[in-house]
Design a protein that fits this description.
heterodimer; A: PH-domain like; PH-domain like; globular; B: PH-domain like; 28% strand
């Protein structure tokens, strides 16, 4: 790679990849009208003008975009009419992702996405660089971030888990199969009740079947070849079938870990791990890298999942206790798995019957503690305590706890969260690397 | 907390209108209509009164507690340090009664700390206090 201290352009093929879909669409339109089936037989001036506009736009965009790594800042300049000059201080980098959409991958290109703390609108995107240049630049950025000589090679990473593709396929099919069985049962019921309705519901059934296919496909395409590794700057995930994504999640941004065990997976001891990451969800990229709920493990054995959860949270799970037996009268089905517990550092709640969900929240990340008492719960003197972390519906639930315990629980959790937060901020103040956020 | 007044006024207005209609027409159907309106107004009045009475907030040293709800009781404990921003809003009805709503936002969408129907001065005081405390005790994500 040439000296990154100079101004650089992106790879000359970038406009092609960036306008890939648009170009294909325009070409299709041009092709259709050129074949003469639609419209008049005159000149196709307008079509060509449209195609030319798309191409010129992409090329101009490429021409006016340049980047340089200037010691401690990565500078990206782009835009012809509305000039956008972005300075990304290396010290504030949260993560550097390498994304390769299908077309880029075929041409040996990669996109570098530099994520800073805060909203994803402030992210720096370099689309596209030659693959090796992207990897080199990432190593340089990370080295500069840790205050090392920029020429230091990227520190090694430790592979934590990789998901065999056969198992991924099996798990996806199992999830699909459970839906299918539910649908079939519904259909059989309908047929038994009144065969005449079959014609009407049959088409709906087909539509469901058809929507199932892209769902299965998307899971497979985004989670194919899933590898999880630990590196000094966080947890690194590599995945993807056609387009690949390599993303890094700094551990300090993790708000909650969730273990999901669907009913058909349980006999095999399989489960799925999800984590919630702080930040505002920006544009939702098609590859799912903009999402705030991330998959840590698409499918894996329970033992491995527990090990990973311990690693991410950095503590041992708290002791769990069951709600009183009278809760069965309010929640006859979901009572089966209900459990919750907390210690000085974390809180954990288990809910769900068909889809068992275990949520684990570090208390230092807790945003608020809530107690909700519904009418049925009040009759039985029960209450549910929610421990909310940042994000939408990110919480550990202490469901159906005895009333007096719940009141005490709210007080205890509020106090524990406070001390966990204080401890944490003292820790950060005393050992804060320069310029690093939080 | 003067929603009671709002509801009360509405109920009284409905009552007057209903009675006027009954007197004008004088039919038994109108009398029944008045009775229905009266009962509905009383029920609404009772419902709103309970709702308003149940809506309480407590400022503690480190957190704000908001409790609300009659049928479903909800209690939220929000640490000042977790506050992202404070909203003070006043709709047309609230403005007519010189009231305002204070809402505390945290990074969690579920944190449910809204206090409606505060006197305007109290709302301003609360907002300033919360903003100051949030600044002093701010904690990162």
């Amino acid at each position: 790679m040439t000296d990154p201290g100079e101004w650089h352009r992106l790879h000359p093929l970038s406009p092609l990849v960036r306008s890939g879909r648009a170009a294909v669409g325009v070409l299709a339109i041009v092709g259709i009208s050129a074949s003469g089936h639609f419209g008049h037989d005159g000149s196709h001036l307008l079509d060509w003008a449209l195609a030319a506009a798309v191409v010129i736009g992409a090329v101009v965009n490429w021409l006016v975009t340049r980047w340089k790594l200037d010691g401690a800042t990565l500078r990206i300049e782009t835009g012809l009419l509305r000039r956008d000059s972005r300075q990304l201080p290396v010290a504030r980098i949260q993560a550097v992702d390498v994304v390769r959409p299908f077309l880029a991958r075929a041409l040996g290109l990669a996109e570098l996405r530099v994520r800073l703390a805060g909203s994803s609108h402030a992210d720096g995107r370099l689309a596209y660089l030659p693959e090796q240049a992207a990897l080199d630049l990432r190593a340089r950025l990370l080295a500069a971030h840790h205050g090392l000589d920029p020429a230091t090679p990227e520190p090694g990473e430790r592979i934590l888990a990789s998901v065999p593709n056969g198992r991924l396929l099996g798990s996806v099919l199992a999830s699909g199969a459970s839906l299918l069985i539910a649908l079939l049962v519904a259909e059989v019921v309908v047929v038994v009740v009144s065969p005449a309705v079959l014609a009407a519901t049959g088409s709906t059934f087909l539509v469901f079947l058809i929507t199932l296919v892209p769902m299965v496909w998307r899971r497979l395409a985004t989670e194919y070849g899933f590898t999880l590794a630990q590196s000094p700057d966080g947890i690194r995930i590599r995945r993807g079938l056609l387009g690949t994504v390599a993303e890094t999640i700094p551990l300090r941004r993790v708000q909650a870990v969730r273990m999901v065990e669907p009913v058909l997976w349980r006999p095999l001891g399989w489960c799925r791990l999800e984590i919630d990451v702080a930040g505002s969800p920006g544009r939702d990229h098609a590859d799912g890298s903009g999402r705030m709920r991330k998959t840590l493990l698409p499918v894996g054995h329970r033992d491995l999942a527990w090990e990973l959860m311990r690693l991410v949270i950095g503590a041992d799970p708290p002791p769990l206790s069951r709600p009183p037996r009278r809760a069965r009268r309010k929640a006859p089905l979901s009572y089966h798995f209900l459990a919750a517990g907390h210690d000085a550092a974390t809180a954990m709640g288990v809910t769900g019957r068909l889809r068992k969900v275990t949520t684990w929240v570090p208390l230092e990340k807790v945003q608020s503690v809530r107690m909700v008492t519904g009418p049925a719960q009040r009759l039985l003197s029960l209450a549910t305590v929610h421990v909310d972390a940042a994000g939408r519906r990110v919480r550990a639930e202490f469901r159906d706890r005895p009333g007096e315990e719940a009141g005490q629980l709210v007080e205890d959790l509020a106090a524990l969260c406070r001390s966990a937060r204080r401890q944490r901020s003292q820790l950060v103040d005393s050992a804060k690397p320069p310029g690093q956020l939080r | 907390m003067r929603r009671v007044q709002v509801a009360g006024t509405a109920a009284a207005a409905a009552l007057v209108a209903g009675t006027a209609a009954a007197l004008a027409v004088g039919a038994p159907a109108a009398v029944i209509a008045v009775a229905v309106v009266l009962v509905a107004a009383l029920a609404a009045f009772w419902f709103v009164r309970n709702r308003v009475r149940a809506w309480t907030y407590t400022e503690r040293e480190d957190d704000l507690i908001v409790a609300r709800g009659v049928l479903v009781r909800r209690l939220s404990v929000v640490p000042y340090g977790r506050m992202q921003f404070v909203d003070v809003t006043a709709g047309p009805v609230e403005r007519a009664f010189r009231l305002a709503t204070v809402k505390l936002h945290t990074a969690a969408a579920a944190s449910d700390a809204r206090i409606p129907g505060l006197e305007r001065d109290e709302a301003a005081r609360l907002r300033n206090r919360l903003a100051a405390l949030g600044e002093a005790k701010a904690a990162g994500l």
